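Model: You mentioned two targets. I'll fold them one after the other.
Researcher: Yes, keep them separate.
Model: Target one:
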Amino acid sequence: MKRTKKIISLLFVAISIMCLLTACGKPADKTFTTSTKVSITLTDAFALSNQDGLDDFDAVYFSPVCACAILTESISSLESMGYEEMTEKEYADLLVLAYNDGTRTMGSVSTNAATNLVSFTYTASNEGTTFYYFSVVLKDSTKYCTVTFWCEYKDKDKYQSDFENWAKTIKL
């Protein structure tokens, strides 16, 4: 009996060590690329959505606990509407102004000194549930790209660092 307990204990320790060494339970990274050539690395818990009503986005990815939407807008289309070419921060300020329609509580635009990523946050409710949104704005020579991550507001502290880490993987 004593020997059986010892063997079970050793097996438990061995399995625990193997799990730690192989990142057991940690989702694997998966890189997604949109038709507009924007790539992002999320976890393999995400899947491309084919839900109706999301046609305005380049891509929307859902996981069981959070989501990510990618939207690009060409610089030339904004210029045809009378806007001059902007920095990422200026474009983010314009988005905050447009999103501030009374249905959302907007945060301010900021630039992360370490990553140089321009971002803003906001909250909004849908059917009695409040959601937290973290948006990052990037730009290349032809387009602006807004990548928005969201989760339930109660989970925002749990996922904020994931959102920031995933944002660092975006490539235009």
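Model: Target two:
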Amino acid sequence: MLKRYRFLLFAVVAIVTVAIGTSAIWAVCQYKFTKGISGPMQVYVKEYNQWDLYIHISGPGLSDLVITDVIPAELDVLWYTADMGTVSIEETGKSGKSATKVTWTINGPIPDNEFTTLRLRIATRLSPSGKFYRFTDAGCYYLNEGAHMEGIRDLLPWSDDTNGITITVLP
């Protein structure tokens, strides 16, 4: 009888995970820390493109969070908005030529059964010469390094990560 219930619990978790997608990270208490993107996944060299990058967080027991991510030097952050907390955007080196660090801070708890989202509009950056847009070579490129989250979960220090999102640049 116990084996039957274990299988049923596993089947329910497997179905939920498939329904949400492979970018979801699930724990026993079903917190969720995911990322998503809208925009082209294949682009051509030296063309202007835009994407909307989303970071979603939900779950009981999460509070006092700091979420960081890095947008590569080939991209600009055009605008951003967050459902709760504050966001800071800073270039890691010379203006217009370096990666951009995004820090999202949420003080206090995320209400149970609710989620919060950070939305970033990113776009290919104009080359230093001003003649074309970045991604000057064909290949696979990251749109972000992958979000890292630290904070409190069920009153204990805790952290988690998502993978970066990649696109293909065609010649």
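Researcher: Noted. Anything on target two?
Model: Helices lie at 2-20.
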